[in-house]
Amino acid sequence: MKRRDFLKAAAGASALCGMGVAEARPNLEPAPQAVGMLFDSTLCVGCKACVAACKETNGMPPVADGDIDYYDSARDLSGDTLNVIKVYRDGSGATKDAVTNGFAFEKRSCMHCVDPGCVSVCPVTAMRRDPVTGIVTHHPDACIGCRNCMVGCPYNVPQYQYDKTFGQIAKCQMCNQAGVERISKGGMTACAEACPTGATLFGSREALLAEAKRRLALKPGEIYAYPLGDVRNPYRRHEKAAPAYMPHVWGEREAGGTNVLHIAAIPFDKLGMPPLGERSAASVAEGVQHALYSYFALPAIALAGLTYVVRRNTDKNDGGES
Amino acid sequence: MTSHDHFELLEQRLGISRRDFLKFCTGVAATMGLSTSEAMAMAEAVATPRKRPVVIWLHGQECTGPTESLLRGQHPSLERLILEMISLDYHQTLDAGAGHDVEAAKDASIAANKGQYLLVVEGSVPTKDGGIYCKIAGKTMLEHTREAAEHAAAIIAFGSCASWGGVQSVGPNPTEAKGVGAILAGKTVVNLPGCPPNPYNFLATVMHFLTFGTLPELDGEGRPKFAYGRLVHENCERRPHFDAGRFAKEFGDEGHRKGWCLYKLGCKGPETYANCPAVEFNDIGGGTWPVGVGHPCFGCAQEGVGFAKPLFSLAEVKTHTPPNAFPFIDDREGVSGMTAGAAAVAGAAIGAVVGASAVAASKLGKSEDEAKNSDSRD
Amino acid sequence: MSAYRPLGGRILTPTVIGLAALAALGFFFLAIRFISGMGAVTNLNGGYAWGIWVVYDVVVGTAFACGGYALAIAVYVLNKGQYHPLVRPALLASLLGYALGGFGAFFDMGRWWQFYNILLPWHWNFNSVMLEVGLCVMAYIVVLAIEFSPAFLERLGLRDIQRKLNKLLFLFIAIGVLLPTMHQSSLGSLLIAMGHKVHPLWQAMELMPLLAIVTAVTMGFSIVLFEGSMVTAGFKRPSETHLLSGLSRAITGLIVVYLVIRFGELLVRGKLGLVFAFDFAALMFWIETALFLVPLVVLSSPAKRDSGRALLIAAVSMLFAGALWRFNAYLITFNPGPGYSYFPSVPEIMVTVGIVAFEVLVYIVLVRLLPVLHDTRHA
User: Which residues does chain B have within 8 Å of residue A77's beta carbon, measured at their own beta carbons?
Assistant: First the structure.
């Protein structure tokens, strides 16, 4: 092709690029009375009482392992499992909470993001963030099953029930979905209530974040009275020597932050956390979408222009007979 | 004398049938994780009359709980069995006599059986001020223990007090009470902690020694692995309730009445090594051990737990390396790999498109070449 | 007289029967999907929720169906009337591609019996790209049907209705240029929210819609070239190369625009190093880029641009390139996290193959029965 054409094309491309850099909206802020949970991997002993309590409270069936269907063999979140405990193992796996030749437990369930990707991408508002508590709930009566929430969740939390003819999306709703409503009735999540060691702690996001930071400030070996149940009003405390925590609270800021916070003695990428920055990807997508389609202004202008041009051209060509 | 004759004599001596006796030995062997043939060896050892090994039994700072627990065995009566198996030359509770004569008999027995007697110690040894806080016949327990240990073939510390000091050794410990092993430098001491300890652990250890001449395998704290190798938590019949999150929260509540896990009531099972849930107490069966009857374990056998931690404070759960069946971080549900069939079909589909295009392209090329040739010919 | 004529000829050829068999097999597996659930037919899982039914049938399939859109721009916006004869067959291909793409979106839905929720305004989430894609595609299928209806009306001899329709056609044509611009770019925007899961070599964030629309238009022109060439070769019609070669300028120009944006984004965001990483993603990037470059090479001279063979090779390469860009971003280099993998199952592939076979089948049948192809007796 001619050089002039190439330069024209390149210039056009650059101009389009300039237009393409749309303004992203900033990350959402935590809800005013955001509730959440704090999972402390160093307190978890892998008893899976939380998994059992979750299944019972949410009416989920056990996951079969081949023919064995009399106990739950959940290996990961699925259409039947909203909460699961996984183990990190290295080498001999002899020492708890050691990165090398050690093991540690990690809880996997909905992180109840402050800026939820699933809520942003759902076309029919089947995923909603409660404006007061920040709890992210799912509404199967609205859902069309497009599974955009699944690809839009950085943690792969929502799980579609592929094995059912009339499947639906399943995910933790902090035990507050219609028919369960533990939080609305003043209670706490089933997993926090069941946890014998206080590894899963319930409370307001603010109080839990403060508790997490308090623990990170402890010196390893320092005796601390760990609360159980609701951090704002624990039903008991138990004294234990603090471990050497990773100096980071997961969920404080990742992709806008989450209501379910994690602390651990193992680096979070080894515990299966995704590589996230501080911006939520959903906020960027919304920025692009609104820049282009806000009030339908740009499309309307484009349509007006196109209609004018096409009409003029079809008048020229015998009445637009196609 | 044949072995058959030995068993006949045993029947007469002990008043139990040979069958019951063999059942008993098999049971003891099973407790220690030994085989049926080893059980038979034990039975033979007991049945064969020979010079009965001497046992010297010392008492320090104790409540006589271990001896009492031993006396509760009934199947068969331990009292009879042990007193027929061994020559208990000195035992402050069971001896008929008392006073200096009994002490003299002890010294004579030790002298006569140097290197061959079994020393059992019950109770801890105070060490403050030269050990004057426990004296028998004018001599401190410290001296008695060291003297008796000097020429013993094996030393057994029976009960928590003898094993690690017991209740008196927990702060403030005004008498500086210590376990037997702590005051016998360089000697192997078999520790059988428990408050009271399970008599069958003692019985099994003694029978092992009598049969094979060696002590059972011990752990780093001198405890036989067959009895103290696992946590109470690992053998507990209420473990499924722990795993399922069913906890009694108050004595008498619904969970307590249903027999749920007592962890939240302070059960120290998760950090106490003992086999209480497996062998239970008092030979009654049916869950006769603390947790089984509804009270949390308080860790009586575990130094640092029993008497040291408050009864109802939460235990630290000692966890071991999780089994390979525990889901790993990267385990997923419902992921199937590529099959050869799928790869073939996908390849065929793409190939068909490419092929069809190639055929069409060559046809177009040919027809255009023909058109060009015919043009040039014109 | 109409400029178009039904092709006529025998309908039940071996090709048609073969296509019908493939279509029947595909629909059989689709029936199993509806009876036993998606897991019985697909290999979708928690990490790969979108498989080939979304990525091929909807995303790539509708990009392949952009012939009508691209020609509408060329003929009715840029006023290049010489391409007018190509419009109707392109519209048929577009209508079939979009209708079956929409059907694909439908049977991929996990709660398809509630699909009407996307039409209820009180459910609309205006933050969602998917909402716009769904509504826009549905509207565009209607517009395509209207734009193609003259072929039906002509065949049925309904001239009055046809004349009334022609008066309003300009409006539908204008809408038919706006709608694909919106949803084809949004099919790129869908990738933004997936964040880190899309490989950095493909995750262009705000530039995704731009890359998507540029490649879609290019694929639109390419599919016109492709289908025109296949019709010529397959039905043994006179060559249309003189008509098609003009489109090659648009294709090469747009490919340059695409390459500038693509490599510019990688350069400015410091990702060019990944191109030379010697890993699987880099390999796929090079294959994809090579496919984009082939048309530039093959159509580099006027002589080559007049060769039907070169045009077809360039078109096929561009179609593969655009398809591969989409496949790479959504599936092949997509990484939801360790432990996940996806390859479609045989039934899953056969459904897609069946849908494509059905599309080609209907195209062939309608081209024979309706006045779609332009009458070559016109000189």
Answer: 333
**Cα four-point dihedral sign B52, B53, B56, B62:** negative
Residue at A30 is within a domain: no
pLDDT at C1: 56
**Residue in A281, A289, A291 with CA at minimum distance from that of residue A115:** A281
Is residue C376 included in any domain, yes or no? no
CA atoms B2, B3, B9, B13: torsion sign = positive
Indicate whether B34 and B123 sit together in one domain: no
Residue A62, preceding bond cis, omega within 30 degrees? no
Residue A6 has pLDDT above 60, yes or no: no
Q: Six-digit token pair at C5?
A: 């004529």
Tell me if chain A has a CB within 8 Å of the CB of B336. Answer: no
Which among C112, C115, C166 has CB closest to A320? C166
Residues 315-374 of B with CB under 8 A from C: 329-339, 341-343, 345-346, 349, 353-354, 356-357, 359-365, 367-368, 371
Q: How much is the pLDDT for B93?
A: 86
Whether residue C133 is found in the same domain as residue C159: yes
Pair C216, C314 in one domain: yes
- For A13, which of C36, C178, C260 is closest by C-beta distance? C260
ipTM of the complex: 0.93
Q: Check whether residue B181 and residue B132 sit in a common domain.
A: yes
- The pTM (predicted TM-score) of the whole model is 0.87
DSSP state of C110: T
A233 touches chain B (CB under 8 A): no
Domain finish residue from B182, B205, B228:
B228
pLDDT in tens, C68-82: 999 999 999 999 999
| A26 part of a folded domain | no
Distances (CA, A) of B173 to B310, C45, C65: 17, 62, 88
The total number of structural domains in chain A stands at 2
Residues C169, C112: contact at Cβ < 8 Å?
Answer: no
Backbone angles phi and psi of A84, in degrees to 5: -145, 150
- Which domain covers residue A299, as residue numbers? 3-21+295-321
Do C226 and C317 reside in the same domain of the chain?
yes
- Domain range spanning residue C12? 7-43+345-370
Contact check, Cβ <8 Å, C197/A303: no
> Which residue of C29, C230, C241 to mutate against B (max B Cβ within 10 Å)?
C230
Q: Give the structural domain span for B368.
A: 335-377
